[in-house]
Specification:
28 helices, 10-stranded mixed β-sheet, 896 residues, 5-stranded mixed β-sheet
Amino acid sequence: MALLTGTASGQPAPKFRLGDDVAPARYAVQLKLSPGEEAFSGSIDIELAVHRPVSTVWLNAANLTVDSAEIRAGDQSVRARAVDGGKQMIGITVDRPIPAGSASLHINYRGKVSSTNSEGLFSNREGGDTYIFSQFEPLAARLAFPCFDEPQFKVSWQLTLDVPAGDRAFANTPVVSETPQGGRKVVKFAASKPLPSYLVALAVGPLETVDAGKAGKRHVPVRIVVPRNRRGDARYAAAVTAELLTRLENYFGVPYPYEKLDQVAVPLVFGFGAMENAGMITYAQNLILAKTGEEIADFQRTYALVAAHEMAHQWFGDLVTLAWWNDTWLNEAFATWMEQKIVSEWKPEWRMDVTRVFDTQQAMHADSLISARRIRQPIESEDDIANAFDAITYQKGAAVIHMFEAWTGAEKFRKGVRFYLRRHAFGNATADEFLKDISSGSGRDIAAAFSTFLDQAGVPLVNVKLACTTGDRPKVVLTERRYLPLGSAGSNDQAWQIPVCVEYGSGGKRSRQCTLLRGGSGEIELRTRSCPEWVQGNAEQTGYYRVFYQDDLLKRLADSGAARLSVGERVGLLDDVEALVAGGEIPADEAMRLAEKFSSDRDRHVVSRSIDLVAELGEHQVPENLRPVYARFIRDTYGERARALGWAPQPGEDDDTRLLRKALVRFVARRGQDKALAQQAVELAQRWLKDRKAVAPDMVSAVLTTAAQYGDADLFDRFVSAAKASKDSLERLRLLAALGSFQDPALAKKAMELLLSRDFDARETFDILFGPEQYSETRMLPFTFVREHFDQLIAKLPRSIGADAGASLPHVADEFCSQDLYDEVERFFMPHIGEFTGGPRNLAKVLESIHLCAAQRKAQEPNLIAFLNDYQRNVINQSHSAAPRSSTNATSRSSR
């Protein structure tokens, strides 16, 4: 059929959203797919609810060719023609208006399977086999079929796949029939429960399944779906998935809503790690598969958290779906909060409460920018949709949910969640409905206070002051303002309604009191007559706010923090101090002393956070002439413990020791420039290249990246050869990460050139581009490389609707710290950035970060220089003294 171009007369194409003249009532899709072939063909039947007479039905469609179309209304069937609506839209038009009521639309069309992106329908190769997978969130179902590709259109889907006879096919629902057809077969799936287009999913190829048992009250079958010959690598996932799903069902009080649950391993992805498709969750295979002996602590924790997150979506996101992308947080923040809650209940020894604190810190750092989004951000473009999947949505949203759960009470909050799910099951909901239902179900109105965090960006800073007056009860006086780093152009004239909980110690007794801080100030009259010895301003770090302790309250906490504070509170204290240094409230030298104090903490999380603090302070504020002194400080502070741990685990070690080793030994070897540890890493890497068992699996990445930092051209070439030869995706990714870690500028350039090589998939090599940012010697190279090879990169990198690699290119300037470089970055990227979905906001954040770094460097560099000069005088110059290290340290600290 010859197709017309242009728009239908009198009915221009929608500019962004489809409108409500017509809505789908049901879909039936047939696709002919052949792994290894780029083209596919399909047909789609859409039952329509026509709310107002129209002559054109507008649909979302991208890179699809319509061969024929037909509309049926009543007893009349009319051939239709397709018209280009631009902006990923297509119109199906007829000469006479379609009357209000029911109608149906049939379209035959063709499309492409991408071999470079991981969106729409895309192909993967693994072990000589080719597979096809789908990824439709947020805007990519339109690459697979013309449809109403917006989340509020939530109806039943029925898929039928025509595939090669030797392949298997999977979708959201169980198979109802398989019909041989020559060298192919037609696989028909059951009609689904109501779903938006972005939750439809499929997989085709020589896939195998592993039985993972049954879950929940309905004994739902759970399977792990893997590429050929990978069944043995699904042991851990098969052992724990059903247990996690059952725990989620128990929390929600609603039976798992779908007929089965397949966990599908995808060999290579870009732009996502896992996706919550109803009944068929997809995972980057390194999250779900591990070889024997490589089911290490990190792998177990990561899989459990990601699986709990995606399975939580089966209720929160799938059973009840957001109505529009401005409420992306309703899906992602809730699932992030839920993953930690369920895994903590299942494995309390994993300390998910501390993981939550780290996640909250990540959100606060992102939220300190004035270019940061709100949690509930208006969505007016595809850029806004692409930007919605960030730390503000996931981590900040989860932190705010946790804060209000703690304020409401866990059981009352759960009643509200269950009330919400029952009210909106198999439908859509908004933030306002969520807050109303949580308030109704829990018996406590949280809507007004919660909305102050949803509808404005920024992190509250709560000043905490202790007031003790003779004859009166002691009071904790609270004031709030927006936290802003030095150099920020933002206004701190903002207010929130903040649930604030404080803990305090008096007479050997530990007490806790809470209030709702609003109106900018408030106070808590303490239930004690004596003035407390100490006050902690964010009890158990449940609040989404930073604390600025007045007078000597910070010193009181720090002097014996291990005894007074929980692990999460110690981690939170260190993060607040880092932020206050960036805000000019605390000098950098004071923060370095605090990090030193916590460096010997008994808990690995606290040690890791002190490492992060030292690393952050030293990144830009240590001049080149003092870098050897800075490295010496790291070795003296952390080296003894790192060298005792060494690169190799010992028999009988617990997981916390192994996890501490990975962070601590690498830090001392790399940032502390410990020659012995560095040489050991190079030797171990060379041994590993010959024997993959020469290094413990949990230390391979640390060893390879450390060896690369000190490595030469021979080691570089051996890493490249090994990466080319490797058939193991995890091993290849480890080698590629190491190739991005060479400190030699000539080798760093060679590593980045691999992005343009035909030897590797750009989805694997993209992160190499950002590796050289970690060293001052190579920091400019990624930006220079992008400028010199821009057109080649854009032609090679994954470019898709929701995961456009081009949008990430400004991040090559993440570690810049001067106004001159700010100007260079702005001049180069500004003319290009509008081409990349989500790019403009990314550039704005990078530019703001450069400006803030320059301001903080100017303010804090003198403090850090003074600290290091003092350290050099009092420690390094006395290193030949007969006094032991411990007494030298005590002298130097007391002299400060």
